[in-house]
Amino acid sequence: GIQVEQSPPDLILQEGANSTLRCNFSDSVNNLQWFHQNPWGQLINLFYIPSGTKQNGRLSATTVATERYSLLYISSSQTTDSGVYFCAVGALDDKIIFGKGTRLHILP
Amino acid sequence: DAGITQSPRYKITETGRQVTLMCHQTWSHSYMFWYRQDLGHGLRLIYYSAAADITDKGEVPDGYVVSRSKTENFPLTLESATRSQTSVYFCASSESRSTSQPQHFGDGTRLSIL
């Protein structure tokens, strides 16, 4: 099946810094989603982005499907951005596969 | 409130017992999913459903049973709970084909098997 790898596994930043999270996948996919799991465990859908670039406030995402990767950019980090960021790809057989996540910790 | 709700939020039970986790969504989404989240494994798909009375296995279906008699409900049953099934369980739904629409998640059920 499809392999989904996220990097880095852990990231510690000072408030105000920018960051880039990466998601690589091993085969063609129908879609790609980015999720944020906050410290209370809730999973929030950030982007549905099978290709191209989308922006939502301080967050933006780019997926290059032909090269099998996606990037999530966080600018001017805030402590509320802390948590785990997951990438999830939709396989051609209709299954959705999650990466193991990037744990982000923003220091005040 | 509209959305996707899971119950209970927390559950402790004993090995060998049957336990059912409930999931209810008010969007009339066709697709629903059950995942488990464990340290070191991320989220893994247990079962999913494309519509009422249609279910299919995911990555880790052994030990679990699902049903979908109504579009809005997708219960997950552990017929004889084992310690290895201690986990956080998430239910999700999406509007149409699972790989063409974004997923929305419930708040999770934390299940402990003693």
Inertia-based shape of chain B: globular
Output the radius of gyration of chain A.
13 Å
The SS-based structural class of chain A is mainly beta
**Helix count from the secondary structure assignment of chain B:** 0
Share of residues in strands of chain A: over 45%
Helix content of chain B: under 10%
Sequence of secondary-structure elements of chain A: EEEEEEEEEEE
Distance between the termini of chain A: 40 Å
Largest sheet of chain A: 6 strands, mixed
Global outline of chain A: globular
Q: Could you say which structural class the secondary elements and strand pairing of chain B correspond to?
A: mainly beta
What is the residue-averaged pLDDT of chain B? 91
Number of strands of chain A: 11
Largest sheet of chain B: 7 strands, mixed
**Mean of residue pLDDT of chain A?**
94
Question: What's the number of extended β-strand segments of chain B?
Answer: 11
Break the fold down into its secondary structure elements and pairings.
The complex is a heterodimer of chains A (108) and B (114).
Chain A: E1 4-7, E2 10-14, E3 19-25, E4 31-37, E5 43-48, E6 52-56, E7 59-64, E8 69-74, E9 83-90, E10 96-98, E11 102-107
Parallel strand pairs in A: 2-11
Antiparallel strand pairs in A: 1-3, 3-8, 4-5, 4-9, 6-7, 7-8, 9-10, 9-11
Chain B: E1 4-7, E2 10-13, E3 19-25, E4 31-38, E5 42-51, E6 54-57, E7 64-66, E8 76-78, E9 87-94, E10 103-105, E11 109-113
Parallel strand pairs in B: 2-11
Antiparallel strand pairs in B: 1-3, 3-8, 4-5, 4-9, 5-6, 7-8, 9-10, 9-11
Give a short summary of the structure.
With 108 residues, chain A is mainly beta. Chain A has strands spanning 4-7, 10-14, 19-25, 31-37, 43-48, 52-56, 59-64, 69-74, 83-90, 96-98, 102-107.
Structural overview:
The complex is a heterodimer of chains A (108) and B (114). By secondary structure, chain A is an all-beta fold. Helices cover 0% and strands 58% of the residues of chain A. Chain A contains no helices and eleven strands. In chain A, the strands form two sheets. In chain A, strands 2, 4, 5, 9, 10 and 11 form a six-stranded mixed beta sheet that branches. A five-stranded antiparallel beta sheet of chain A has the order 1-3-8-7-6, with no helix packed on it. In chain A, strand 7 (59-64) and strand 8 (69-74) form a beta hairpin. Chain A is globular and about 45 Å long. Chain A starts with a strand and ends with a strand. The model of chain A has no long low-confidence stretch (mean pLDDT 94). With 114 residues, chain B is mainly β. Chain B is 0% helix and 52% strand. Chain B is built from no helices and eleven strands. Chain B has strands spanning 4-7, 10-13, 19-25, 31-38, 42-51, 54-57, 64-66, 76-78, 87-94, 103-105, 109-113. In chain B, the strands form two sheets. In chain B, strands 2, 4, 5, 6, 9, 10 and 11 form a seven-stranded mixed beta sheet that branches. In chain B, strand 4 and strand 5 (42-51) form a beta hairpin. Chain B is globular and about 35 Å long. The model of chain B has no long low-confidence stretch (mean pLDDT 91). At the A-B interface, strand 4, strand 5, strand 9 and strand 10 of A face strand 5, strand 9 and strand 10 of B.
